[in-house]
Amino acid sequence: MALYSEKVMDHFRNPRNLGVLEDANAIGEVGNAKCGDIMKMYLKIEDDIVKDVKFETFGCGSAIASSSMATEMIKGKPLSEVEKLTNKAVTEALDGLPTHKIHCSVLAEQAIKSALEDYRKKI
Ligand code: FES
User: Fold this and answer.
1) What are phi and psi of 8, to 5 degrees?
2) Predicted local confidence at residue 1, as pLDDT
3) Chain segment 103-122, per-residue pLDDT in tens
4) pLDDT tens-digit series, residues 16-55
């Protein structure tokens, strides 16, 4: 079996929602102290719905694929659903990650949670 699923390779090669969201009203940034990778999530929230989302990830391919998939999973969704997104769900949506790369998907969950915290501080 290949180390990485086709979905991981696809999201790594063609990341969805990559970049900076100029009119974001919630920004979350997290890092992993061990590998030094950093992930930033930009959310535009209106009426408790994630209207738009973009990300920047300075990290490994699994982190890029995880953030890309996570943005797809929260776009257009109500905050009540978004706050429940787990790294496990992201990993499953990617058809799995190697065990030593699971922490990369944790960054995606944490970056979204950090953006939601940022949003709640402002309202
Ligand atoms: Fe650090 Fe993947 S190795 S996020």
Assistant:
1) -60, -45
2) 59
3) 999 999 999 999 999 999 98
4) 999 999 999 999 999 999 999 999 999 999 999 999 999 9
CB 26 within 8 A of CB 119: yes
Those residues with Cβ within 8 angstroms of residue 76's Cβ, 6 or more apart along the chain or in another chain: 49, 50, 51
- Point out which residues pair with 38 in neighbouring strands: 31, 58
Ligand 1 centroid to Cα of residue 70, in Å, is: 15
102 Cβ inside 6 Å of ligand 1: no
**Do residues 49 and 77 make contact, with C-beta atoms less than 8 angstroms apart?**
yes
Domains of the chain and any CATH numbers: 6-122 (3.90.1010.10)
List the one residue out of 46, 40, 103, 49 whose CA is nearest residue 74.
Answer: 49
